[in-house]
Amino acid sequence: MNKILIIEDESSIAELEKDYLELSGFEVTIESDGSSGAAHAIDEDFDLIILDLMLPGMDGFEICSLIREKKNTPVIIVSAKKDDIDKIRGLGIGADDYMTKPFSPSELVARVKAHLARYKRLTSAGIQENEIIEIRGLKIDKTARRVYINGEEKNFTTKEFDLLTFLAQNPNHVYSKEELFKEIWELESVGDIATVTVHIKKIREKIEESTSKPQYIETIWGVGYRFKV
Ligand code: CA
Description:
This protein is an alpha/beta fold. The chain has two domains: 3-124, 3-Layer(aba) Sandwich (Rossmann fold); 132-227, Winged helix-like DNA-binding domain superfamily/Winged helix DNA-binding domain (Arc Repressor Mutant, subunit A, Orthogonal Bundle), CATH 1.10.10.10. 43% of the residues lie in helices and 21% in strands. The protein contains eight helices and twelve strands. Helix 1 (11-23) packs across helix 5 (105-124). It is elongated and about 70 Å long. It binds calcium ion. The site of calcium ion (CA) has 5 residues, from loops.
């Protein structure tokens, strides 16, 4: 079932939108405050977001920009602001559609369906979001195989990247050098477990502010390594 988030402070409008969407088989959540709406839109994976512009806490333009920094979820702005400039601004920051109040609920439902269908076509055509792991200042783009620390890209060799990604994907799990070697170098006969130590050292030099006080990859003496979250 498609999940839709409505960020709207006028409860009569939010309820009207919800009723129509539920009748069409959608699962609907309402947020009436801008800030909590933005947080919810980012934390949970909704299939589509219906966004008001004038909201307490945070306005719809700001919410839309925040969502776009993280996600490609379709956004339909539904607002009492009729000016073309608002429409242009809304679409310019990544909204997919703009409807003005008062609106016809069945038209809203039709547009929701059209955007969901379009989004599905795009994603199934392979235009997908990159798979990203983000932990504090560290960002690993698994799809593009790139690593950033506080926004700055660092160059990683294939094995360094594989090792860091494996640890970051399994945080708080202590791995011995043998286990890591097997995991990352399994099919290659060259090297031994000292290779793991060398690679950990190189990774730390790239991602840690202080290699003697690592914030990400922790040494568990006598056992191995653990990625801290
Ligand atoms: Ca409003």
